From TrEMBL:
The species this protein was found in: Notodromas monacha
Pfam families the UniProt entry points to: DUF5522 (PF17653)
Annotated protein name in UniProt: Uncharacterized protein
Source domain of life: Eukaryota
Length: 154
């Protein structure tokens, strides 16, 4: 089955023009991802992001709009996994990833304490002047934490 993917959110209007063949379950998962991604983008606070964070956000959006699982970090050149890849994996890997959609649930506490959510993605606390991971924004939890893990037979 070919699926043209379209994302329309309050501040984003991305159209994926590439057609890709997917199995029925993959089509369902990707559709679910795009629905959740639209909610995610509506709840971002762009004014809270630094110019460097906005660049990362834009690179991430470009990558997912093209169906990519990674993009290159502009500062280090390292590959960074996208929310699309994390979502399709179906669980937190425990590495406190930048675009984890599972609230870092499997990450060790020492890694969790070093990260904060900036309304778009997870960032390191060191050097940011932030002293706590406390976050009043429960939107993140309500969007992605209700994700059901994908069946093991996939």
């Amino acid at each position: 089955m070919c699926l043209p993917l379209v994302l329309r959110a309050a501040r984003v209007n991305l159209v994926i023009v590439r057609h890709v063949s997917f199995g029925e379950n993959t089509v369902k998962l990707r559709k679910e991802f795009w629905e959740k991604e639209a909610l995610w983008l509506e709840r971002e606070t762009l004014s809270a992001l630094s110019p460097a964070e906005r660049l990362i956000r834009d690179l991430h959006l470009k990558a997912i709009s093209e169906g990519h699982f990674t993009y290159d970090d502009p500062e280090t050149g390292l590959k960074v996994l996208t929310r699309l890849r994390h979502f399709l994996k179906g669980r937190c890997c425990g590495n406190a990833c930048r675009h984890c959609v599972y609230d870092l649930e499997n990450a060790p506490e020492e890694l969790k304490r070093k990260r904060r959510f900036n309304s778009s993605f997870w960032v390191d606390i060191s050097g940011s002047g932030v002293e706590s991971l406390e976050d009043d924004d429960d939107d993140y939890d309500s969007i992605f934490l209700s994700i059901e893990p994908k069946p093991k037979n996939m």
